Amino acid sequence: MHCSSSWLTRPFRERATQCFLGILLAALAVVTLFNLTLPAEHPLHVSTYTVTLLGKYLSYALLAVAVDLVWGYLGILSLGHGAFFALGGYAMGMYLMRQIGDRGTYGDPLLPDFMVFLDWDALPWYWLGFDMAWFAFLMVLLAPGLLALVFGFLAFRSRVTGVYLSIITQALTFALMLAFFRNEMGFGGNNGLTDFKELLGFDLRSDATRLGLFLATGMALAVGYVLCRAIVSSKLGRVCVATRDAEARTRFLGYRVERFQLFVFVVSAMLAGVAGALYVPQVGIINPSEFSPIFSIEIVLWVALGGRATLYGAVIGAILVNYAKTVFTGVMPDAWLFALGGMFVLVTVLLPKGIAGLLAYRLRRRRPPPSSSPEPTAPREASA
Amino acid sequence: MKIPPCLRWLLALCLLACLPLAVHAQAQAQAQDDTGQSLLASLDAASYARMDGAIEAIVASGDERSRGWLEALLGGKLQRHKETGRFVVVLENRGRNWPVVDALTGEALGEMSRRELDRIGINNALRGQLQSVLAVLDLRVDDVGARREAARDLLGRVDEAMVVPLQGLLEDEADAEVSRLLAQGLAIHRLEQGDAAAIESLAGSLNPEARAALSSAARSDDPALAEAASSALADIEQKLRLNSGLETLYFGLSLGSVLVLAAIGLAITFGVMGVINMAHGELMMLGAYTTWAMQQLLPGQSGLALVLSIPAGFLVAALAGIAIERGVIQFLKGRPLETLLATFGVSLILQQLVRTGISPLNRTVVSPEWMSGSLMINEGLSLTLNRLYVLGFALLVFAGLMLVMRRTRLGLEVRAVTQNRAMARSMGIRATRVDIMTFALGSGVAGLAGVALSQLTNVGPNLGQNYIIDSFMVVVFGGVGNLWGTLVAGLSLGVINQVLEPWAGAVLAKILVLVFIILFIQKRPRGLFPQKGRAAEG
Amino acid sequence: MSFLHSLADRDRVFDFLVPAASPVDVRHGPILYLDGVTVSFDGFRAINDLNLTIDDGELRCIIGPNGAGKTTMMDIITGKTRPDSGSVWFGSRHDLLAKSEPEIASLGIGRKFQKPTVFEALTVFENLELAMSADKRILPTLTARLTGEIRDRIEEVLATVGLVECRQRLAGILSHGQKQWLEIGMLLMQRPRLLLVDEPVAGMTEQEMERTAELLTSLAGKGKQSVVVVEHDMGFVRSIARTVTVLHQGSVLAEGSMDQVSHDPKVVEVYLGADPDEEAA
């Protein structure tokens, strides 16, 4: 399996990755085709509304993949990944705000509406440069990446792991949420950033742009998936698994565990940032609620439901839970929290390996694996 | 111009001093009404310059109703009906029609249009004199509390005419507090006249009037007076700073006690079982709702209900805790991260149960009378009683838990399991039973925290959520498995928060505290009071 | 000019690309030297003024009752626990107290734990691959390829520890004895200068014990490896030991050949004589 091919091309030789990419690309193609060619009254027609909804799911799926990378393979249960997602989203939101120009309610050519409302007379320094797409897109990676770098550097250096790490990641996102709620921070406070007009010159309300965003999100998911796959199937991925299961032992083998943890954590945070950046133009708003600890824990549920340490499980979980959320909140909103809470309990108690675990079990029963190939690594709980 | 009114005041006040002696029988009601009518009539007829004479006459009459008349006069509510010439007191002078009562009989006369009435006007000079007269009148009543209030009102309003009667009152005064206030009032007056000796009796006074008098004296042309006044002022400022420091400390300790209450149950379950119970906040919520339910069951007896809800809240939360342990946590042994997720699910369900079962809105829990009000330490510092009670309650709960941990069989077993689960098990300790008991204990304490919280904040479905992250921070900061650590961490975080708040604002203070803890954990990953040894490092 | 010359010289890699070699300087004495080491946990002195010297190529056995400080001593050498006072030297060049666990490991100190610790979610082959001495920084690890050379070396060790058949099995499903062997195999892959082996034969059959004894004695030798074995099994110690150190209450009670120490009255009192059943436990 782990042969002498290059680390980046290795995933393309894996059956699971080929299947995943095949299904994903086919789904993208079908949705595009049905949206563009079928008339609106056709039963199979996919409306632009649905396309955007699916795009939102896909960005969540990318976020879930990022969480699975650190939780499934590194054993770090981050309850603060929503923060990285939101930071990426805010970076994109700031770009979109600057793109509004003088088309805002107050018509100020430079200042976004909320700043005019607050009687500010100049852009804060950290808003500078966000009128340039390349800079904003760089920030989509750098803002979450830097936060993860600093936070991870401090945490991993002092060997904060297990539930301690979970708790302080939660505190981190909570602190950020409080901070972003403040008007003085200059990120729109409670209301966040909204009323976007266009992205790279494309009208955000047009059907074509929305389809394009959906496809871009799908491609980002594909790239992110392959990147994560490449990492976990490299020797570095095996060091991660080793760290997850026996951190001290890995250290005694001469690996600087904290650097590996930091590397993967930062990569994961950047992926989450990209997911956030793709999410914002599709839903049309970013506000501090994305920082809320509950959202971050929900992400973990998607991964747990789909199955940890599989990557594709995270995608399945994210899409299923969010589809269920859409359905529930439409039909009986009161029941959604019961369903969500129930899922948390049932998945952890009854389905520790998630849906992917069930699938693998079914497949194995149908045809026994050839003895030469290694068994898929069973996700195990890292000891605290 | 100044002397004659003063003399008249003197006369009035002397007569006033004889007031208690002049007892009027109720039987003379008719005669009274006649005199009352004529007193008011002369008041109404008098010009501003003569009015003080009329006021004197009213005071001198010793009529029981005179206080009401003077107050109404001061408030512009003493009026005359234009047609009948009847004197009335307006109860509420807003709108077009005013409810009125007869000034002499107190009989309600329904509503009258403002057009029908003629106000007995006064000017500013009279207003000041009226206030003084009223204040001195109040100093005569039997109720000590009312006298203190009156004496406090007089501060900074003493004028020359009041000095002699006030000194007389001061000699007869039995209550030390009233005497002190009167002496201060007189001293302020003397200081205003430029008497440097008065500064001594004002030294250390926290009353704003005294401070105002001192600071104006500090700017006086007389250098000796100015210097003495400013040094007295500096002392007062010092005392004020101390006061505000103490107040911050008190609020900090109060917030800290809430944190300790919220965290200590968590510390037990986390320390012993290594389990993160995300539903801990919701167990607190259950405790708070138990208090509410208890008050619904015992309407009008909020005190009894509160006392009863202490054991009830403990019991309800403990039972819920046992249900969580048996229903979820026992299946997740050795998987702390999954326990965290599962209990989070439980917390969502509990919240939603309350939202759909009771109401998504906050419920009001009444504070019993003995818990409202405040404890006055000095003029600048008073401690609200409910917070004081909660602080005491937190310390009691802590002491109780310490006793349970140190002195009972359960505590011994719990400590054994905390330190080395496998070893404790092989010594014949039934770890499962210990788990259940510990979880019940921790949950029950959460219930107690909820009962206490119901006295400080709104009782609603989100009550627990607001505290869960804070209480985790306390546990982590204090060091797992160490109750003293939790106490110290909770109280100090509370104080830190309150110290930062005036400087940074509430939200930023909270952010700073979170960031501080995040950084602190990097420095000392095992908290303030870590457990040491090979087993702990495993 | 010479710089350009060195650039043109394609036979050699650039100096900065050569992994920092850390030769252990043993010309002036022992390979491991502990001096006056003391560590206490909450007032309890686990190690009390411990002095210990291991010579290059030596095979040393360390025995002592429970709580004598054997495992804590290993924790100190490998950097897991920091002593309150004293110094620990690896060769005459490396102060181990100034280094982290991975640094100590890459200097050439390998450790086998008391409880066999292998990576249960990885295959036997992958366990050995991770243990192998290589550039263990992040990017080289990410781009590492499995060359024929590496494969051969892993196969070689697999043969040595008798796990050829289990190559692709998950380490988690191995028997206790197999895990012990795998861990020894991982030690071999590390190619350390100093092996610290904590209770290697617990859970092994007689035959396996013999093979272990054989392996450990063959490893130790001048210029090759030095081996420190902590063991409770007296029979096993007797079969491999040249020099035995007895630890008691955190410091050295006696040192010498097996015969010498087993007749030392102090040792007999605190350990051997007290309860003959306990030593075998």
From TrEMBL, chain A:
The yes or no answer to whether the keyword Membrane is present is: yes
How does the protein's chain sit in the membrane according to the entry? Multi-pass membrane protein
> Per UniProt, what is one GO molecular function of this protein?
branched-chain amino acid transmembrane transporter activity
Name of the protein in question: Amino acid/amide ABC transporter membrane protein 2, HAAT family (TC 3.A.1.4.-)
Q: Where are the transmembrane segments?
A: 20-38, 58-90, 134-156, 163-181, 208-228, 260-279, 299-323, 335-361
InterPro entries assigned? ABC_transp_permease, ABC_transptr_urea_perm_UrtC, LivM-like
Q: Which GO terms describe its cellular component?
A: plasma membrane
Which NCBIfam families does the entry mention?
Answer: urea_trans_UrtC (TIGR03408)
What's the chief localization of this chain? Answer: membrane
Q: Where in the cell is it found?
A: Cell inner membrane
> One Pfam family for this entry, by name?
BPD_transp_2
Where does the signal sequence lie?
A: none
Q: Keywords in alphabetical order, please.
A: Cell membrane, Membrane, Transmembrane, Transmembrane helix
TrEMBL record, chain B:
Q: Name one GO molecular function term.
A: transmembrane transporter activity
Write out the annotated subcellular location: Cell inner membrane
Q: Show which residues constitute the signal peptide.
A: 1-25
Keyword line: Amino-acid transport, Cell membrane, Membrane, Signal, Transmembrane, Transmembrane helix, Transport
GO cellular component terms, A-Z: plasma membrane
Gene Ontology biological process terms in this record: amino acid transport
Topological category with respect to the lipid bilayer: Multi-pass membrane protein
Specify the superkingdom. Answer: Bacteria
Question: One Pfam annotation, family name?
Answer: BPD_transp_2
- Which residues are listed as membrane-spanning? 249-276, 304-324, 388-405, 472-496, 502-521
- Give the protein family: Belongs to the binding-protein-dependent transport system permease family. LivHM subfamily.
Q: What is this protein called?
A: Urea transport system permease protein
Which organism does this record belong to? Halomonas saccharevitans
Automatic annotation (TrEMBL), chain C:
Looking at the keywords, is Transport present? yes
Q: Does the keyword Nucleotide-binding apply?
A: yes
List, alphabetically, the GO terms of the cellular component aspect.
Answer: plasma membrane
Q: By its UniProt entry, which PROSITE patterns does this protein fall under? A: ABC_TRANSPORTER_2
MF-aspect GO terms: ATP binding; ATP hydrolysis activity
* Record-annotated ABC transporter domain positions: 32-274
Q: Cite the InterPro entries for this sequence.
A: ABC_AA/LPS_Transport, ABC_transporter-like_ATP-bd, ABC_transptr_urea_ATP-bd_UrtD, BCA_ABC_TP_C, P-loop_NTPase
User: Where does the source fall among the domains of life?
Assistant: Bacteria
Task: Extract the Pfam families matched here.
Answer: ABC_tran (PF00005), BCA_ABC_TP_C (PF12399)
Q: Which UniProt keywords apply?
A: ATP-binding, Nucleotide-binding, Transport
Q: What protein name does the entry list?
A: Urea transport system ATP-binding protein
Which species? Halomonas saccharevitans
